[in-house]
Amino acid sequence: PVLASAHENGCICLWSIQGNLVKELLPFSKYPSVPLTALCTDVSTKMLLAGSKEGHIMRWRIASFLEDPKNSKNQIKEELCWRAHSTEVVDLFHEEEKNVVVTASIDGSVRLWHAMNGYYLGYFGQPRKFELSDISRLILPCDVNNFPTIIKEESKHMEKNKKFEYPLMLDRDK
User: Fold this and answer.
1) Residue 5 forms part of a structural domain
2) Number of structural domains, the chain?
3) Which position has the higher pLDDT, 44 or 152?
4) What is the CATH number of the domain that holds 95?
5) Are the C-beta atoms of 39 and 4 separated by less than 8 Å?
6) Which has the closest alpha carbon to 12: 44, 42, 38, 46?
7) Domain limits at 141?
8) Is residue 47 part of a domain?
9) Are strands 120-123 and 110-114 parallel, antiparallel or unpaired?
10) Is the confidence at residue 53, as pLDDT, over 80?
11) In this structure, what is the dihedral angle of CA atoms 160, 34, 51, 20, given to the nearest 10 degrees?
């Protein structure tokens, strides 16, 4: 068993039941780290979902890591990030049978998303029925203008290893 905790600095810590830190995760995104406000897993603990103060949802694949945390080949991989709300996410859960994520925000909205690709399916209180089978249309809620970002492992490593040099140059004329 592993306990996950979300933190103000945007980090997720995974703890053993003895209280030892097993792993520390920092979301990989083009946005600076923001406080995480909600966490959940699916029933089979294959994925970990986190919601942020800025309305983002992030999804990690954790199954292989949980099977053997000591094996360095079994890494936790962030797979997807999307903007679910324009304000803080206060709760979220994954409904495994329908493969949807339900998110709630401090603005009072409760929205439904496809768990695998972050596509918007609708909101609670809408006049039409949810169409869970049609995920071909990529629509967004009115207050969100960013499409879901699929995070590829290659780009993650490239970003980490990118080195910049900013040599100081003395210009006597200035």
Assistant:
1) no
2) 1
3) 44
4) 2.130.10.10
5) yes
6) 38
7) 30-150
8) yes
9) antiparallel
10) yes
11) 70
